[in-house]
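Researcher: Next sequence.
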Amino acid sequence: MQKKGLKEFLQKKDIVFSMKRYGIDALGAMAQGLFASLLMGTIISTIGEQFGIQFLIDCGTYAKASTGAAMAVAIGYALNAPNLVLFSLITVGTAANALGGAGGPLAVLLIAVVAAECGKFVSKETKVDIIVTPGVTIIVGVIFSMWFAPMIGKAASSVGSLIMWATDQQPFIMGILISVLVGIALTLPISSAAICSVLGLVGLAGGAAVAGCCAQMVGFAVMSYKENGIGGLFAQGIGTSMLQMGNIVKNPKIWIPPTLASAITGPLATCLFKMQMNGAAVASGMGTCGLVGQIGVYTGWVNDVANGLKASITAFDWIGLILICFVLPAVLTPIIAHPLRKMGWIKDGDLKLDL
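Model: Next structure:
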């Protein structure tokens, strides 16, 4: 196939090799798949365990068991995969997640992308499409899972373990770095939740990530209350600070207050309150979105108590969670923004959203 012909064929198949397609669209969709399986399963089963409702425990167990399949299908959906490819990715995601071990989400992301694009390449090109398309998708996906998923998973797990080890050794410095970087990722059009899940970011590092995400979401919500009112408060505070991305492009200085707030709350979380995320790693990158970050911290407490790693959930735990996730971002961000407004770096209307 000639170069021009191949290019036209790929366009017809909607196979686009780009960072946006794979690093933003697919990664963001993967996070939604994680949310709809592992994270919701964890929340539902935790409620069941707390109230002794076996049905909810079973629901959560089944939801968590479908994690790999849910991620792969979500990725395929983001890549506009045809139905036969999309349904075949259930098998691919299950294999990649199982063989990827602790780093399963990254293995699913990379392998599902390859399998989906291969399936799209052959889709509807033969008279036996019902056999060829799912066959190619599944075989490519499972072979890649067997060959590469363990290595991908180990690499991702090793990086995550290194970050968590460094945080335990240097909680102040790493608390700042993780809080700032994950918080920035949450506001950018990429998935901080998927990043945290891929790296398996839990423990103190996960707590710092939660702090950074909350600083961005609550910080922007409170700082822009004058322009956006109660609707903007909820849209950003329990929705996403990504809504401000257009305004950040116009005036990057509006990003300074919540980012500096995250640099303060991050080390407070790691050094003072010892706040850990020992629930699902995906929750580390969710912040106050649907209160998922806080629910994740709570489920971690419950699990630690059940496993004998924590004696009980204390008042200090709750005070730290409330201060780090809500109070401090709401107080610090406007305070930091005040001199910037006086200097003219932030003007009225700079944070206005079209809600």
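Model: The chain is about 75% helix and 0% strand. The chain has two domains: 8-158, 170-342.
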